[in-house]
Model the fold of this input.
Amino acid sequence: MIEPLLKVQNLARHFGSASAPVRAVDDVSFEIANGETLGLVGESGCGKTSLVRTLLKLGPATSGSALLDGVDITTASGRRLHELRRKMQVVFQDPYQSLNPRMRVDRLISEPWALHPGVLPKSNWREETVKLLESVGLRAEHADRYPSEFSGGQRQRLGIARALALNPTLLVCDEPVSALDVSVQAQVINLLAGLRRERNLAMLFVAHDLAVVRHVSDRVMVMYLGKIIETGPKQSIFSAAAHPYTQALMSAVPTPDPRRRGQYKRIVLQGDLPSPANPPSGCRFRTRCWKATSICEEQEPALTARTEAPGLLTACHHADPESPTRSLAREPEPMSTMAR
Amino acid sequence: MALLEVKDLQVSFDTAAGRILALNGVSFSLERGEVLALLGESGSGKSVTASAIMDLVPNPPGEINQGSIRFDGVELLQLSRNERRDLCGDRIALIFQDALAALNPVYSVGWQIAEMFRIHGRTPEGGVEKAVFDLLTAIGIPDPESRARQYPHEFSGGMRQRIMIAMAVALEPDVIIADEPTTALDVTIQAQVVDLLETIRKRSDAGMIFITHDLGVVAELADRVAVMYAGRVVETASVFELFEDARHPYSVGLLASQPRMDTDEDELVPIPGSAPNPVALPSGCAFRTRCPRAEGLCAEVVPSLEAVGPGRQAACHFPVSPL
Done:
């Protein structure tokens, strides 16, 4: 069997006191193969960013491991960590904050080579910078400008070029397009898709926009309150999701087609995300779930393979691919006035 | 006669980089009971349009140079400051995008909702207090008696946005302007808020201007759409016409660049380039530098908003031909 590029096992990241920790990431396991794109979705506060930061070792893991090419990120330090960082790079959400405004573009892009001597001799920096700029759709003359001279979309391209400078095998994209306008967002998505094909890049693509995730991902992972509640190949998740939360999340995304208005039964979840410092017992979603019964309170559901969709894993006692959005016969009980 | 009619509105701002025309001839109308979506990307002038209607353009540096805003037959731009203020909140209400910034952190939520009644000198039947509790109940906040005494920071983002809605509809306005009311919210909470807004609006048959950049929300909510680009309305159409048969190349491009939840597309078709710098807009049509249909004429003459079918308009010299 081929080893996956990234293998995360029982990873946890807790904040605050040891007696009453905020379990931002709790017992998370997953893998990413070479050249594969894994989409990570979930609402704010679900632990997406904490997971990403732990994987990038921008914060310590509380327990568990994350092996990149067989080397554990969570325990690596010094030279080993330095070497790991060459293989994994990150594209941040905010292209206005992630680029140093005082650095010219040529310096921004060649900085990774300065930090990793031996990757590229200094005499080649300029040539390689221009190549990178061109590969992200910018021009050679842009190398002599400052970030403030670029638009949001162009800055995100700069961020991508910089992330690619060390020729990483894993690119972590944390909401890379959510700060961009729709017309520009599509440019950056296409750019990432193209680069991924050309360079056989593996990506962890974090986003809250399900349509974007559907477009870029091979597999998708859904998080809720620090846990992975469902994961599987894109087709399975988008056509046969069996977890009520995934179903609700998808039904809540408005369809950009006015003719379909009212044809879909929308599942309107009650209430808000509970506090991760004091999550519900058993299944963490049960307080907002219309299927919850006493077992959900007592026993935490484990990720279990579903037989009807290949590769789909669901953590739910009442998992059922028949979403109420698809079968109009069984209706959930949303807030009384909210049914459409 | 339209309930609200905006004509040829021009708003400028003086900045260090020079004078910016934030709105450069914006025209649209809103009927009673209708939902009009103002659709556009950042910097297109959507929010400035809302500010101009609500008399919230800061002066200086902002200035309304020309145009007209008629509400129920009255020209708003000729009213005095006090007359405008009486109308705003009472008959025209605004829901802001950022509820945390819009709510006052040092007053209780109940006090802020009640302020609407106090300022406009209206005492609802059964007293102000009861009206506040009723509003909180209507927006789905349990235990209104104790929640009314709490402060904005004690509510979640979705609840705060619903409180903004309660304040806006407290006096049953004729026009509700919702400025990206769901942009800062998660999608499941967004669904709650949009549904609530529609339920409440339908009850009073108010007209609504819904400002957004989200095509999905437009498709679910709007009756008509005005697409904005660089301070102008470039297309108006019914929501069905826009999604199936858009005429302005920008509208067409916007629709093609949106990834979809319900289908697998091979590749998105983005609009090349990015929005123009408002200090140095291209001559002629502001979209021409990104437009696949642009020709010489587009650089010379600004296209005006003209009829391209019954009840619909586009501002383009070479509109996309009908299906």
About this structure: Chain B touches chain A through 52 residues (CB under 8 Å). The mean pLDDT of chain B is 91. The CA atoms of residues 272 and 290 of chain B lie 6 Å apart.
